[in-house]
Amino acid sequence: MPELPEVEVVRAGLAPAVTGARVVSAQVMDPRALKRHLPTAGDDGLGGHGVTLTAAAGAARSADFERRVTGLTLAAPERRGKFLWVPTSGRSAAGEPLALLAHLGMSGQVLLRAHDAVDDRHVRIRLWIAHPDHGELRVDFADQRLFGSLALDALHPANDGPGVIPTQAAHIARDPLDQAFDDARFIAALRSRTSGVKKLLLDQTLISGVGNIYADEALWRARLHPETPGSAVGPRKAVELLALLRAVFAQALVEGGTSFDAQYVNVNGQAGYFAHSLNAYGRTGQPCPRCGTPIKRITFGGRGSHFCPRCQKRRT
Predict the structure, then answer these.
(1) Is 3 a residue of the active site?
(2) Helices (H), the chain
(3) Per residue in 199-226, pLDDT tens?
């Protein structure tokens, strides 16, 4: 699943092309990519996260999205964790500011294309936009596995600091690259819990944007076993872990994110190359770059974790 660096790469790539652009028209090829979109006419019988669409409900949801997004002017894209949204000139039925919200799921891609470009594979939704400086472009939302989605969603003041956030993203914490991220609050929460530190890093209510790849890499750098209880992480080590997580993110951003296959690409369809810098994730049986001990993989809570059994001894 794309994590914070991959989503941030997409946000940064979109910004010059969409900020100030107007949506000229829209086409929904597959209404399943609108599973988080709620029509203004009310409940279409599916709920906000319906996956199984009848033909009639899918057509109604598609028509609602196409009608409401067409003509909107787009502002600078924003992100929290793995959620990406573009504020618009639109308003919800209740008069709230409206955003175009994207979640990439497992394989979602937001791609910028010329109008006459060859179709991308697995395109689910297409927008045609006109920018005062960059001219006309096509925005393709492609998604092979259909866990991602686009939606129009209302913006509300954030309940954890400055800024606004879409309704559907309001439940997640800020991410460590957010200027308003509260380091002391996160560290206190981490150290007050007995769950394994890897599980806590993946808890989106504590810290957002962290998935398996970057959790494993930060824990390797911090020499922490993934199952070390949060309560066993000392205050200095917790500060170090947060700093190393930010360092991992920063390096991944410079290298364009992590691409293991063609599903993880930027807005121009280019793969990131942070996979070549990984020290632990996906390196089962290979020597630890630090001490030479074979990297081990364990599974708990349905997730795999990669670590060095010599460098990352479990604390109790």
Answers:
(1) yes
(2) 4-18, 55-69, 183-191, 197-201, 212-222, 235-254
(3) 999 999 999 999 888 999 999 999 999 9
What pLDDT is recorded for position 278? 86
Active-site residue identified among 32, 61, 68, 82? 82
Q: Is 227 one of the annotated active-site residues of the chain?
A: no
CA dihedral 53, 3, 126, 128 (to 10 degrees): 150
Which two tokens mark 291?
């001490």
- Kindly compute the dihedral angle of the four CA atoms of residues 116, 119, 124, 125, in this order, to the nearest 10 degrees: -10
User: Whose CA is closest to 315, among 230, 248, 253, 235?
Assistant: 230
Check if 289 is active-site. Answer: no
Which tokens go with 66?
Answer: 């196409």
The pLDDT value given to residue 256: 61
Contact 224, 232 (CB under 8 A): no
Residue with tokens 């799921």: 105
If one compares 255 and 116, the residue with the highest pLDDT of the two is 116
**Token digits of residue 159:** 């309940």
Q: Which of 7, 235, 26 is nearest to 125 (CA)?
A: 26
Which of the residues 296, 297, 303, 314 is marked catalytic?
303
Phi-psi region of 287 (alpha: psi -120 to 50; beta: other; left: phi over 0): beta
Give mean pLDDT, residues 297-309.
88
CB count within 10 Å of CB 95 equals: 8
Q: Is residue 108 a contact partner of residue 114, using CB atoms and an 8 Å limit?
A: no
Has 35 been annotated as catalytic?
no
